[in-house]
Amino acid sequence: MKIEKATIKDALNIHNLINKSAKEYEVLPRALSYIYENIRDYWIFKEDGNIIGCVALHIVWEDLAEIKSLVVEKESQKKGIGESLIKQALNEAREMQLKQIFVLTFIPAYFSKFGFNLVDKSFLPHKIWAECINCPKFPNCEEEAMMKEL
Asked: Where do the H-state alpha helices sit in the chain?
C-alpha cells in the first residue's frame, strides 16, 4: 500500500473511482478531460497495484488551495486511507508555502479532525463556484465550506 503522485496512465481509473462515488452524491462528478487537465493535482492510494483512493490539491491563488475529490473505495474505508491522503495533500500545501486550504464537504465532522473549521461560503473565492453548475444538487448546495490555516 502506498500513496504516490498520479500519472497520465492513472487518469481513467481516477475518473471511474470519482464518478462511482459521485453517483452516491458523495463528491462532484468529473469529466475525463478534467482529470487529464488536472492530473498534476492528484495523489492516489494503491493497494496490490489497484487505485483504491484519491485526493486532489488544487491551487486557487498564491496562498490558497482546495482539497477536492477525496474518494476511497467503499470496501476499503475505515482503514485510514482517507486520512493518509488528506495528510499528503496538507504536506504538499505546506511545502508549497500556502497559507490556507479549504474544502467543500458533506462530512464536516471528518475534516474537523484535521483542523478545518466551518466558514461561510461567501469567504471563498467566486472562481470556485463555476464548478457548481456541474453539480446535480445545484443550486441547492448541501456542502459545508471549511478552512484550515497552515
From this structure: 11-22, 32-37, 81-95, 108-112
Residue 34 grid cell: 478534467
Give per-residue pLDDT as tens, 69-114.
Answer: 999 999 999 999 999 999 999 999 999 999 999 999 989 999 999 9
CB-based burial label for 139 (10 Å; 0-12, 13-18, 19+): exposed
How do the domains of the chain map onto residue ranges? 2-149
CATH fold for domain 2-149: Aminopeptidase (3.40.630)
Helices and strands in the chain: count of H runs, count of E runs: 4, 7
Query: Cβ(102)–Cβ(145) under 8 Å?
Result: yes
